[in-house]
Amino acid sequence: MINHNRLHNHIQELSKIGKVGETGVYRLAHSELDVKAIYQVKEWMEAAGLQTRIDNFGNLIGRLEGNNPDKPVFMIGSHIDSQPYGGRFDGTVGSLGALEVVQTLKEQQVQIQHPIEVICFADEEGTRFNKGTFGSRGITGQLVDGELERTDEQRITRRQALLDMGCNPDQLDKDVYPEGSIEAFIEVHIEQGPVLEKQDVPVGIVSGISGPVWLTVTMEGHAGHAGSVPMDQRQDALVGASEVISGFRSIVSQDPNADTVGTIGNIQVFPNSRNVIPEKVAFTIDLRDIDVSRREDYEQQFKQLLDEVAERHNLTYQVQEDMRSNPKYCADWIKDVMKQESEKLGLQAPTLMSGPFHDALVLSNVCDYGMIFVRCKDGLSHHPDEYANEHDISKGVELLYQTVYQIVTND
Ligand SMILES: [Zn+2]
Questions:
Q1: How far is the CA of 239 from the centre of ligand 1 (A)?
Q2: Which of 58, 194, 236, 310 is 20 to 30 A from residue 65's alpha carbon, by CA?
Q3: CA of 91 to the centre of ligand 1 (A)
Q4: Structural domain boundaries of the chain?
Q5: What is the block-wise mean pLDDT of the chain (411 residues), using blocks of 10 residues?
Q6: 3-state helix, strand, coil in the chain (%, to 5)
Q7: How much distance in Å is there from the Cα of 358 to the middle of ligand 1?
């Protein structure tokens, strides 16, 4: 059994670093406060008997050797950077939960076969340099060109921010894990959605992380004086866009039992003037589903809708694809262990999809992965009011402990 009090002391202590208001935290990646938090957790890792290092991506890693040093590493953890005005639990629960799991294994002198690493990934949130999951993409060789030259609002580059925290951005290569060297990765995270709360259960087992499609749609008509162009002669791009926007909602909600979610969160109107007919409107589409064929079907329906609306209002349109990533399913063997252990713990843990992406999604490209979700209040996250009950958190971490125990003591 994990140590409930120690876990929550850690969570509480860490929330003091970068604290804003009563309950918020503000720890932007690689910043002074983020680094302070990293060193605090490093100290706790060392107290737990782990061998620690901060790699050149800014990841904090604590390692516990197994009996068989040739075995690939079993990795658990999450991130401790936050959004500006973020919450105390996003990432922290999975990071300090992982530490608690390994500390308990060590205290109980459990004979483990695999080496285990607890990892706090650098810059999961992506706020500061507008590109997230930096640490997890780093160790798995998934960084792209120009990544170190990205700048924050103060024009500080990622390279400089890494140098400032003592990392060597010219030696990133040596911190990339060779292929096959990670056996599996498991992450505990607050749900950041309302599903568990609605089902009135503390913990859920994640089936997979849905793949988002990001599009930018631009619709174009004709500007004209709002006072003089008769209604039947208008080519009003905003009127067309508004029909498309409400139609998009109907498309993604047609099956009430599906996991599909679709959002239009940004819209730009040109010339954006009260007495000019809108000539051009650009808006974003975020469409996610765990079922890729359904997602594609809805996307097709959306494009048909665009055609119809454009024709009706005499508009042209363009669709730019900004991102297309496929859903990634959690490994069946990990989910099976989780299911079995959750039953032993008396948790009625349902299976649910993750809409948000996580470091686990990045790891899924190189190894098997699993995730455990903890219920959070009103599904709220990335906000100072984010809240997860400590007993729920302990249940999620206990499930991680039992799952890891089964895996690392076997074979
Ligand atoms: Zn997170």
A1: 37
A2: 58
A3: 4
A4: 4-209+327-409, 211-324
A5: 98 97 95 98 98 98 93 97 95 98 97 96 94 96 95 96 98 97 97 95 96 93 95 97 98 94 95 97 95 95 98 97 90 98 96 91 96 96 94 98 94 65
A6: 35, 25, 40
A7: 6
Report CA(192)–ligand 1 centroid distance (Å). 9
pTM attached to this predicted model: 0.86
Residues 204 and 389: their CA atoms lie apart, in Å, by 14
Q: How far is the CA of 360 from the centre of ligand 1 (A)?
A: 10
Neighbouring residues of 264: CB distance < 8 A, sequence distance ≥ 6: 245, 248, 283, 284, 285, 286
Residue corresponding to tokens 């935290």: 25
Q: Which of 69, 169, 184, 159 is nearest to 115 (CA)?
A: 69
Say how many Å lie between the CA of residue 191 and the centre of ligand 1. 9
CATH architecture of 4-209+327-409: 3-Layer(aba) Sandwich (3.40)
CA of 356 to the centre of ligand 1 (A): 9
Please give the distance, rounded to the nearest whole angstrom, from the Cα atom of residue 157 to the centre of ligand 1: 23
pLDDT (0 to 100) of residue 411:
65
Architecture of domain 211-324: 2-Layer Sandwich (3.30)
Give me the pLDDT at residue 264, please: 96
Q: Give kind and range of the element (H or E) at residue 216.
A: strand 211-220
Q: How far does residue 284's CA lie from ligand 1's centre (Å)?
A: 23
Query: Which residues, chain by chain, have CB under 5 Å from ion ligand 1?
Result: 90-91
By the 10 Å C-beta count (0-12 exposed, 13-18 middle, 19+ buried), 271 is classed as exposed
- CA of 121 from ligand 1 middle (Å) equals 10
Closest CA to 172 of 236, 122, 105: 122
